[in-house]
Amino acid sequence: MLWTTFFALPAAVSALAMPHWMKRQGSLTMLRFGCAQVVIDRLDPLVNPGSIPSPHVHQIVGGNAFNASMTQGDVSAGASCTTCAFSDDFSNYWTANLYFKARNGSYKRVKQLGAARQFNDDFSTKIGGGVLVYYVSAQPGKITAFKPGFRMLVGDPTRRTPDPAMKRQNCYRCYTGPNFGGDTAAPCADSKIDTQGLPKEPCKGGIRSNIHFPTCWDGKNLDSPDHKSHVAYPTSGPANFLSLGGNCPSTHPVRIPQLMYEVVWDTTEFNNKADWPTDGSQPFYFSYGDNTGYGQHADYVFGWKGNALQVGMDATGCMGAKCKDMKTQSIDAAKRCSVKTRVNEDHDGWLDKLPGMEM
After folding, report:
1. pLDDT given for residue 340 in this prediction
2. Is 359 part of any domain?
């Protein structure tokens, strides 16, 4: 249980207690914190700016400046609160929602759990769903924090087949029992328990999803037309917590933090196979109509105030939802932050069709 044991340790982690895959990384900072949902809505200011509604539903966490447009600029200047642990983090993080499709063809949204309960902090266990966010500074050389106006997208919602080169970029883990059973390795690191596609059998403890963003930047553009070209993976391919680092390509020489999202889907309500399709196929669909999981994608808009994130990336030994010289807030304050829903749709009842995709 090295992976789970590691995160139960205090910030000052001794070399003896450090998992073997961390010992070779040298100095490490891993900001790991939960963000409660700020809104569930059919908006996408990156791919469909200004569109109300956008084609599919998203779950959004972070600052309350989130809106359908979010033009270039300093997002933190337009926000007054955040649902994240660090009170200077007004960024927005979002992914597509997951739905269960019953035999009669109706859909119901799958709610999210918090992070694994053995991580004993309020922003793991009390966010009431939402997303767990990682910023890791363990790559060789200086890590440069994102700049105001920076944004990026990872993944391809049109993909329905696996991409072997990206197996460490996007993965799922089927929890084998209650209380997040089977969580014994770093994300996307164990081919025996991590899959590129959605699990094909009922998961007794739910399904965990991890998405890794690129770690190299061209140093010039805060965005690009496809929201991807200004960033790149190392020449060795997507990194994970077993292979942090790698050389950046000459076109994207600036090292940026390893950003990762983690979502735990509470699929336990839907584990009765008598409710699954008669052909035995798995019944979970992302809000853009994908039941393979290969099209999973995630969006990011940077919104840390001032140099707050750079302070974290320059620190050493920071683990979890606290770090020296970085401001935090209470979970109660975080959960009071919200954004008004713009598209009036049912998020919790049974639906005849997926919102947007089939309506």
Report:
1. 96
2. no
- Can you say whether residue 113 is alpha, beta or left, with left for phi > 0 and alpha for psi between -120 and 50 degrees? beta
Q: Helix, strand or coil for residue 222?
A: coil
Tell me if 62 is assigned to some domain. Answer: yes
Question: Which tokens go with 200?
Answer: 């094909």
pLDDT digits (tens, 9 = 90+) for 147-187: 999 999 999 999 999 988 777 889 999 998 776 766 767 78
What's at 56, amino acid-wise?
A: H
| Residue 356 placed within a domain | no
The structural domain count of the chain equals: 1
Q: Which domain holds residue 192?
A: 31-336
With respect to residue 306, please indicate whether it lies within any of the assigned structural domains.
yes
d(CA 285, CA 278) in angstroms, rounded, equals 16
CA 334 to each of CA 116, 301, 353: distance values in angstroms, whole numbers, following the listed order: 19, 19, 33
Burial class (CB in 10 A: 0-12, 13-18, 19+), 69: exposed
